[in-house]
Amino acid sequence: MFSLTNLIIVAIVAAVLAAAIAAGVTLMLQRRMAGTRAKLILDDARREAEDLKRDKVLEGREEALSITSEAEKAAQQKMSKLQSTEAKMKQRELQLNQQQSENQRTRNELDGVRQNLDAQQNVINQRQQQLDEMHRQAQDLLEHISGLSSDEAKEKLIQSLKDEARTAAAAYINDIMDDAKLTANKEAKRIVVQSIQRVATETAIENSVTVFHIDSDEIKGRIIGREGRNIRALEAATGIEIIVDDTPEAIVLSGFDPVRREIARLALHQLVADGRIHPARIEEVVAKVRKQLEQEIIETGQRTAIDLGIHGLHPELIRLVGKMKYRSSYGQNLLQHSRETANLCAVMASELGLNPKKARRAGLLHDIGKVPDEEPELPHALLSMKLAEKYKEKPEICNAIGAHHDEVEQTSLLAPIVQVCDAISGARPGARREIVEAYIKRLNDLEQLAMSYPGVIKTYAIQAGRELRVIVGADKIDDAETEKLSSEIARRIQDEMTYPGQVKITVIRETRSVSFAK
């Protein structure tokens, strides 16, 4: 009998064998299943490959058919084009053949015409020879009759034609010059009138005194000071005569320098407002006001340049422009006159097709020689030109500045414009002030000058001396002599008298017939 241990071993071995057999069976089944699956996969792959192959073959056939059809279409199109070109070539060939035949026919016709022309040319040559012979005979006959050779006759004929052409040309030139003068005068008047109308002006006139108003007459004593020391200190510091009289609530500042008068006025205003009036305070305030006024002068120059659209001026020129505010010429404010002249120059330059900016610049600077820091012995026009040259202004502007009183030769078109506009601004009514005695004397001189001519009955100076009307006797002077008389009076006034602007002379001759009914 087997023991228990043996039984257990046998059982274990049997179990191991059974497990091994089971594993072998399982592995065998798995291998069979794997082989079956692989076979199926291979079959599927073969079928897909065959389907893909079949699809690709079909696609290739379709593409080949498409390419073939396109190639056939292209070939047909080329064939049709070739056929069309061939037809055109045949048609062109027919046209060339027809044209060649026509050219040949035309050539034959031209040959016939040429032969005909040659024949006519021979006839013309023969007739020309006959005409030459007749012309020679006629020329010999004319030379025999006139006693002149052909060259002499030609010379006389040419000379007579030259004289006639010269006379006609002179008459034509005179007509052109008269027309040009008339047109130029009309155009010049139009430009001047339009320039004056387009520039607004002021007619204010400055005086040589300034009135300082005060609140009460008690302040006059404080301004005078003890034993007059305050007023003496103020006059010494400002250079202005201070007149304290019986005029109520007013003190008169007298002086020909407007800058000093303005300094004195501003200093008095500050002293009266502050209340402290003594010599030391006066000197301090006057010095302070002088500095403030210098700054105000520069600001005035800058503001003027900006208003007129003038750029790039030297700072010293700007200061001189501002300084013109405190100067006057025959009572006309110099800065106002320069601004007015600048605007007139710009308008007139625009009308004439010139540069208005340069004209405005020259018009503004033309009188800066009237406000120099030093007083050289030079006319103000030349001094203005030298200042402009010193501060790098352009030569044409410098020439226009220096030539506005004919003290240098005019070399640019700006010069006569500045000269004319300066005269317009200074000569307009109300611009400048004359002494009454000088004004009345000028009017009397005008009337007496016209009365010195024989035949003059009465004379009247009107329009502030800008027009002189002369009445002559109808029995003493005829119509032709009136024109001569007006020209002679105008010439004498121009040569012998000094006046602003121009004077119009009108000679009036009339015949009056008077009868009485009784």
Report on the structure:
- This protein has 518 residues and is mostly helical.
- 69% of the residues lie in helices and 7% in strands.
- The chain is built from 14 helices and 8 strands.
- The strands form 3 sheets. The protein has a 3-stranded antiparallel sheet, covered by helices on one side. A 3-stranded mixed sheet has the order 6-7-8, covered by helices on one side. The chain has a two-stranded antiparallel sheet with strand order 4-5.
- Helix 4 runs parallel beside helix 6 and helix 8 packs antiparallel against helix 9.
- The N and C termini lie far apart (212 Å).
List the SSEs and their pairings.
Layout: H1 4-146, H2 150-198, E1 209-213, H3 218-224, H4 229-238, E2 241-243, E3 250-254, H5 258-274, H6 279-308, H7 315-323, E4 328-329, E5 332-333, H8 334-351, H9 356-365, H10 380-390, H11 395-402, H12 414-427, H13 436-451, E6 456-462, E7 467-473, H14 479-496, E8 504-510
Parallel strand pairs: 7-8
Antiparallel strand pairs: 1-3, 2-3, 4-5, 6-7
The backbone outline, from C-alpha atoms, is: flat
Whole-number radius of gyration?
58 Å
Task: Specify the biggest β-sheet.
Answer: 3 strands, antiparallel
Query: Which percent bin holds the helix content?
Result: 55-70%
Distance N to C terminus: 212 Å
Report strand %. Answer: 5-15%
Annotation, overall tally of beta strands: 8
**Average pLDDT score:** 80
Following the backbone from N to C, one meets helices and strands in this order, namely: HHEHHEEHHHEEHHHHHHEEHE
Q: Any low-confidence stretches, pLDDT <50, length ≥5?
A: 200-206
Trace the largest sheet across and list its strands: 1-3-2
So how many helices?
14
Based on secondary structure, the structural category is mainly alpha
